[in-house]
Amino acid sequence: MKEEKKRHTIWLTDQAWDNVESHYQKDNCSTKNEYIEKAVQFYSGYLDAERADEYLPRVLAEVLEGKLGAFGKRMGHLLFKLSVEQDMMANLLASALDVDLDTLQKLQSRCVQNVKKVNGEVTFQDALVFQKGADA
User: Fold this and answer.
1) What distances in angstroms separate CA 118 from CA 10, 122, 126, one per listed residue?
2) pLDDT the model gives residue 53
3) Residue 99 and residue 86: Cα distance in Å, rounded?
4) Which of 18, 29, 68, 123 would bridge 24 by S-S if both were Cys, CB 3.0 to 4.6 A apart?
């Protein structure tokens, strides 16, 4: 249910109005009125100690959701780029090596077990030691 809005007259200093004008779009507000209303609600929530238990979790959730969303988008982009590079390297290596599918499947199985064992902390040195036969 959308709350009905009514017109109110307020008086602001030039500095306060400059803040509204310079910040409302940064907060993804479509109007200055929306920004002012959000600011009033935010500050009122800050002052209302009795409402702190319902206000702070909502505000924190909104902030975290925004930050984690941006982080997730960035990580997804980086993982995609990494996957492209890995695919290029795998194709170049596969074109240069003469490895049969059975050997490849055995290596994949061994690598899955190894990654689980070392909790994803695989090093080139460990792979070299295994391939040279010093460690099985």
Assistant:
1) 64, 7, 10
2) 65
3) 18
4) 29
The per-residue pLDDT for 1 is 63
Share of the chain above pLDDT 70, in %: 91
Do residues 34 and 42 make contact, with C-beta atoms less than 8 angstroms apart? no
Q: 32-47 and 14-23 helices cross at what angle (nearest 10)?
A: 110
Share of the chain above pLDDT 90, in %: 38
